Amino acid sequence: MYHEYIKDAIVSSLDELAKADRPIEFLTEIRKITFKIIMFIFLSCGTGPMMETMEKEYAILNHGLRAMAINLPGFAFHKALKARKKMAMIIQDVVEGRRARKANNISRERTDLMDLLMELEDENGKTLDDEEIIDIILMYLNAGYESTAHATLWATLFLNEHPEYYQKAKAEQVEILKRESSPEEGLNFKGTKQMEYLSKVIDETLRVVNVSLYGYREAATDVNISGYTIPKGWKVMMWYRGVHLNSEYYPDPKEFNPSRWNENKGKAGTFIPFGMGSRLCPGSDLTKLEISIFLHYFLLHYE
Question: Which residues participate in heme binding (predicted)?
Answer without folding.
Answer: 281
